[in-house]
Amino acid sequence: MTDAALRKISALNLAGIAKTANMRVEQAAKENMSYAEFLEVLINDEHLNRSRNRRNKLMNKAKFPQHKTLEEFNFSWQPGLNRQEIYGMGTCEFIRKKENIAFIGLPGTGKTHLSIALGIKTIEQGYSVLFITLSEMLEELYISRADNSFRQKLKKYTQPDLLIIDELGLKKLNQSSVDDFYEVISKRYESNSTIITSNKDFSEWGRVLFDPILASAILDRFVHHCNFVTIDGESYRMRERQDLSPSSDAKKRGRPRKPVSEEQEEVPEDA
If DSSP codes are grouped into helix, strand and coil, which group holds residue 91? Predict the structure, then answer.
């Protein structure tokens, strides 16, 4: 393909075609492609490139702290979880229905892992996602009130198809924080989906939210279309720490060896 043609393709923002044009021309000649077949191949290249670029942009905007997948999750360590139910959530039907999810369990039980994994599945289906801890979100909103950018900042949390709010319950909220939290939940209600992870049982959420009236309003809206997943198992991190501890190593090796001096003093029974 001529340089002039490639420049025109680039000017039309057909980056996917521009990347593969020369290779596809050679392929078309070798395989005796028809004009329609050649055109279809080029269109597929452009579509694939745009899909890849969109996915990369969505991943960057999501701000995931780590990359976690459902396939990596160790269900054998959390036998109380319904694998079929979790994988059903991975189809993103809850996104299409504007439903919410709450992952509840002790620290280290996999709540954040599952929320990120569902976020990635959501992006793979072309939806937008934002991950943030509750304290970070409320701090940003609090600061935005000082420079009159609150409404603009609020859109950051109300517009994504899926908002993942991590770590509800680490500390109690004050009146200003509860006000801002209500703004986010109320504007997302029946418009977009929200995932919340918490180390507190749902019955304790009201105490964390400070204001009883606003707490009731927040919980009522979030719970209306919500799937609750309670993880009763042990902490992965605690298990890993125990496996790496000296006492754990000793158990794996069996009975600790006696000091050298004691071994030298022992005399065989048949000596």
Answer: coil
* Interacting residues of 234 by C-beta distance below 8 A, sequence separation 6+: 77, 106, 108, 109
Q: In whole angstroms, what is the distance from residue 131 CA to residue 118 CA?
A: 11
**Residues with Cβ < 8 Å from 17, sequence gap 6 or more?**
9, 42, 45, 46
Express each pLDDT in 239-265 by its tens digit: 555 555 555 454 545 544 444 444 444
Q: Nearest CA to 95 among 229, 220, 191?
A: 191
In a 13 Å sphere around the CA of 129, the CA atoms on its Cβ side amount to: 29
Phi first, then psi: give them for residue 70, nearest 5 degrees.
-65, -35
In this prediction, residue 1 carries a pLDDT of 83
Portions of the chain given CATH number 3.40.50.300: 70-236
Q: Does the pLDDT at position 111 exceed 60?
A: yes
What burial letters (b/e) apply to 186-209, b meaning 16+ CB within 10 Å? bebbeebbbbbbbbbeeeebeebb
β partners of residue 194: 163
Question: How do beta strands 226-231 and 193-198 pair?
Answer: unpaired
Which fold, 70-236? Rossmann fold (3.40.50)
Q: For a pLDDT cut of 90, what percent of the chain falls above it?
A: 80
Asked if residues 98 and 190 have their Cβ atoms less than 8 Å apart, the reply is yes
CA distance 246 to 74: 25
pTM, 2 dp = 0.83
